[in-house]
């Protein structure tokens, strides 16, 4: 068992009756060439992906990630992944990697080689970064204008805003801008002043005792870990809701978190240069719950 680990996949149609996918999986040396120069994922970012956490041998949120991958494929007009094949690929990969520690498992579906006959797909597993410090200490966040008003995804579906695409240059630029301003991360806003999401995370607020996240839409991904966080909060008897959130509500919230699959839950401790109230006890409890999941 080793890391990194790479598995190439020959995608089968979504409606295939095939149940044994062993001959569609090909292990690769992670340092060896695997993609051709005409590959559209690298030339144009024309593809989709998901990243899930594997904790002590347990892949987390498999079904929500596969469901979101399939939804991204529909939006991008890519061949819809066969869920049984991708479940089998994840199971295969997990059996070939260390069974202790935190691992990031990324799976990708590309449109393939330009003018080629089929899409390209692969999984790649690597040791997760050590997020213990930000889980314990929180993150300083700035707000940045995403450049779009509310409702743009519905009016302009060709922007692909509801898909988790490989085109992450803007997201990474936003994080670099946060660093230039002495912060760690970013929360995107619409041009008309509503909270969206982070470049790599969902946003959850506590407002007057209720836990709120911006309603998933054509422009906001439905966060897989945010859903798990809401499951935990409901079990604790808390009220949770999805709705539009204005910037003023963010500024006045009792607490805020950025939530993602591998980093998990981190408290916002500063917003646009001003100290922000944090509930570290709840953050610790959330992360203990998230790390203990076995599915």
TrEMBL record:
Q: Which domain of life is it from?
A: Bacteria
For this protein, the record's Gene3D superfamilies field holds:
3.30.470.10, D-amino Acid Aminotransferase, subunit A, domain 2
SUPFAM superfamilies, per database record: D-aminoacid aminotransferase-like PLP-dependent enzymes
Entries under InterPro entries matching the protein: Aminotrans_IV (IPR001544), Aminotransferase-like (IPR036038), BCAT-like_C (IPR043132), BCAT-like_N (IPR043131), Class-IV_PLP-Dep_Aminotrnsfr (IPR050571)
Gene Ontology BP, a term: carboxylic acid biosynthetic process
Q: Record keywords: Lyase included?
A: yes
- The answer to whether the entry has keyword Lyase is yes
Q: What is this protein called?
A: Aminodeoxychorismate lyase
Upper classification of the source organism reads: Bacteria, Bacillati, Actinomycetota, Actinomycetes, Micrococcales
């Amino acid at each position: 068992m080793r890391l990194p680990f790479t598995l190439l996949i020959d995608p089968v149609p979504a409606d295939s009756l095939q149940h044994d996918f062993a001959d569609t999986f090909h292990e690769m040396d992670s340092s060896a060439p695997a993609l051709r120069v005409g590959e559209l994922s690298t030339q144009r970012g024309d593809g989709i992906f998901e990243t899930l956490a594997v904790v002590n041998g347990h892949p987390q949120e498999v079904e929500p990630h596969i469901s979101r991958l399939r939804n991204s494929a529909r939006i991008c007009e890519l061949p819809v992944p066969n869920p049984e094949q991708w479940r089998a690929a994840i199971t295969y990969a997990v059996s070939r990697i260390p069974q202790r520690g935190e691992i990031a498992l990324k799976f990708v579906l590309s449109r393939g080689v330009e003018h080629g006959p089929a899409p390209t797909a692969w999984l790649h597993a690597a040791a997760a970064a050590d997020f213990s410090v930000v889980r314990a200490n929180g993150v300083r966040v700035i707000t940045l204008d995403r450049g779009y008003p509310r409702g743009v995804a519905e009016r302009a579906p060709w922007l692909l805003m509801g898909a988790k695409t490989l085109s992450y240059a803007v997201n990474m630029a936003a994080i670099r801008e946060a660093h230039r301003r002495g912060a760690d991360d970013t929360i995107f806003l619409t041009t008309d002043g509503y909270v969206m999401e982070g470049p790599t995370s969902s946003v959850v607020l506590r407002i007057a005792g209720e836990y709120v996240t911006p309603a998933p839409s054509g422009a906001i991904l439905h966060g897989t870990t945010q859903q798990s966080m809401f499951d935990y909060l409901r079990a604790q008897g808390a009220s949770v809701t999805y709705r539009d959130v204005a910037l003023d509500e963010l500024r006045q919230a009792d607490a805020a978190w950025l939530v993602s699959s591998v980093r998990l839950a981190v408290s916002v401790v500063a917003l646009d240069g001003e100290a922000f109230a944090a509930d570290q006890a709840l953050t610790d409890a959330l992360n203990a719950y998230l790390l203990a999941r076995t599915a």
